[in-house]
């Protein structure tokens, strides 16, 4: 799951540098049609997805012509990964050269899996010689590109359902595994490439979940405190610091109130004792771990009529959070009144897999879905449906993926930069221009999409 391409339909072309490191270059001649042969998509589904993709590409080029997008005017990098993945997360550090690191984990069956730390260097943007050249997509420098290196490879015993770096020690990575365990790694201790004698060597193995899960969240206020959620209907709290001398840990607490599998969890951005959980029972629970009762949440609501797959606290507002569901909706909630949601976003046509608030704005939120799209919303635009039946909050819909989008992550250092990954092992790095977002004529975008 790279050079900046002048085309929107592009995949990686593998090259080797003199140090025998892998560099992915995406150039003007690349084509997004070069997918692997083992993709399994029904003909009806592919027809629908292909139509959405072609519509997205046509509108992206139209908007480029209209000077609305920027990456080129929606800056866009596409790379087909060698192995499938359902999780992605940016590491927070950067340098003056706009170099970032990205975490991905593989989900291979009956094979060794791995967590990769990818190093991504984004090059400067192309400079147009003249307005005429801009309209013809011609630049002064045709060799502009971004580089992607596999910097660290961590062997993993089973499939990687989710990975999260520790906010207090960013080189520490926790993984939620398909064998039901939680694993802890220090990526500084692992090589850049697999070797014949490499071993699966986690720092810590956290045992206790009866089934596998997806939810995984570090407490941003207390170092070493980690939550995981499981299909066994429970939430597990782990304290890595207090048990740092033991390689195998048991949970310090188990929270059990859901009547079905717990899909996702998130810590409150302002209060160290508060977290939320959502599950296949349709419920949203707000927990206060200062309460000694492990089976009674502080607040609860039946948030959706179907499975709730994801939840995210707003990083700027102590009261707001968002949920995404198999009912194809995203709901915004206010903790002060959980009787009904503040807003329901109806633009997805498939199950919502992940929701994430933008790190630079309290109003911006992104969601990804089984319908192969990533939507960006501005909740300050909340009114009635627009004339084209889109939510007025919808400011952009990225339709470049051709298969369900499993995960997304905002880059905390570069505004509007998003990594999204679909279940056909395709990674997209993309952004919209902030000037487009503030442009009054951005209403045309929703009319085109």
Q: How many separate helices?
A: 4
Mean pLDDT: 81
The CATH class turns out to be: Mainly Beta
The total strand number stands at 32
Distance between the termini: 26 Å
In short:
This protein is mainly β and 449 residues long. The protein has one domain: YVTN repeat-like/Quinoprotein amine dehydrogenase (Methylamine Dehydrogenase, Chain H), CATH 2.130.10.
Give your account of this protein's structure.
The protein is mainly beta and 449 residues long. 9% of the residues lie in helices and 38% in strands. The longest helix is centred in the first third of the chain and has 23 residues, at 43-65. Residues 1-43, 62-73, 127-144 and 440-449 have low confidence and may be disordered.
């Amino acid at each position: 799951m790279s050079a900046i391409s002048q085309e929107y339909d592009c995949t990686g072309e593998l090259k080797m540098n003199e140090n025998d490191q892998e560099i992915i270059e995406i150039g003007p001649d690349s084509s997004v049609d070069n997918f692997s042969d083992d993709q399994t998509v029904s003909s009806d589904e592919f027809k629908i997805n292909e139509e959405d993709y072609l519509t997205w590409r046509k509108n992206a080029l139209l908007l480029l012509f209209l000077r609305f997008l920027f990456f080129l005017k929606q800056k866009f990098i596409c790379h087909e990964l060698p192995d499938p993945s359902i999780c992605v997360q940016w590491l927070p550090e950067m340098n003056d050269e706009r170099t970032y690191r990205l975490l991905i984990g593989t989900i291979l069956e009956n094979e060794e899996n791995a967590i990769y730390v990818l190093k991504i260097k984004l090059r400067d943007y192309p400079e147009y010689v003249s307005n005429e050249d801009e309209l013809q997509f011609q630049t002064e420098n045709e060799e502009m590109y971004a580089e992607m290196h596999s910097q660290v490879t961590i062997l993993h015993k089973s499939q990687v359902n989710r990975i999260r770096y520790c906010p207090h020690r960013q080189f520490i990575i926790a993984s939620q595994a398909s064998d039901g365990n939680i694993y802890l790694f220090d990526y500084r201790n692992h090589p850049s490439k697999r070797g014949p004698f490499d071993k699966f060597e986690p720092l810590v193995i956290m045992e206790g979940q009866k089934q596998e899960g997806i939810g995984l969240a570090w407490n941003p206020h207390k170092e070493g405190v980690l939550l995981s959620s499981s299909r066994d209907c429970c939430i597990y709290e782990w304290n890595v610091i207090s048990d740092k001398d033991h390689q195998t840990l048991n949970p310090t607490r188990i929270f059990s109130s859901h009547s079905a599998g717990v899909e996702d969890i998130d810590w409150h951005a302002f209060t160290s004792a508060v977290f939320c959980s959502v599950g296949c029972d349709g419920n949203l629970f707000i927990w206060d771990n200062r309460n000694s009762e492990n089976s009674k949440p502080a607040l609860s609501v039946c948030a959706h009529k179907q499975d709730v797959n994801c939840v995210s606290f707003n990083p700027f507002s102590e009261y707001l959070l968002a949920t995404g569901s198999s009912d194809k909706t995203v709901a915004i909630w206010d903790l002060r009144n959980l009787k009904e949601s503040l807003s329901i976003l109806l633009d997805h046509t498939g199950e919502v897999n992940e929701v994430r608030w933008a790190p630079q704005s309290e109003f911006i939120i992104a969601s990804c879905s089984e319908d192969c799209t990533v939507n960006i919303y501005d909740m300050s635009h909340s009114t009635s449906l627009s004339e084209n039946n889109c939510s007025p909050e919808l400011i952009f819909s990225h339709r470049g993926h051709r298969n369900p989008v499993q995960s997304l992550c905002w880059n905390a250092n570069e505004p509007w930069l998003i990594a999204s990954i679909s279940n056909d092992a395709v990674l997209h790095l993309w952004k919209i221009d902030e000037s487009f977002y503030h442009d009054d004529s951005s209403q045309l975008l929703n009319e085109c999409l």
